[in-house]
Amino acid sequence: MIEFYDWKDSIVAAIIAFVGAIIGGTITLIGVNKTLKDSQQKEKLNNIPERIYVIKNESAYMFNITLEIDTNFEDKEEVNKFLEKIYFQMEERLLEKNILIIGSDLYKEYNKIQDLIRGFMVKIRLGKVGNDLDYQKFGVELISKILEFTNMCGVRRRRLEDQYYRLYK
Length: 169
Fold this sequence. Notes:
By secondary structure, the chain is mostly helical.
């Protein structure tokens, strides 16, 4: 009769093989994880010039909107056309340039500006915007949001440039 505590050679070999497989799998998992992290880091670093380029372009585009606001807010009839034009240009830029590359916080700010424009366009269509003060308040709020976005772009661009120059100096 075989007793419970009397182990055979095949059982010992199976246990050793199982423990060895666990250790080997863990080492492999650690190695794969490190390789993935390294490749993601390299890809992120290689994207720095592209990210800087996109940030500069979006910042300049948004700043130019502030310059256009002055001329396009003089005629109330043209305000909605102007806002629609800007809104759909921003939408196209989101689709064509993969603006997510600039970072999630800038992307959120970009969307806040779009939401602000869309909300004002809806108010105009519903007739809830009547006097010059409403247009002026909106214009100031829009310019403020855009300048906040361009400031954030500048901070991000400088940080990326510093990071890039430190790496490749």
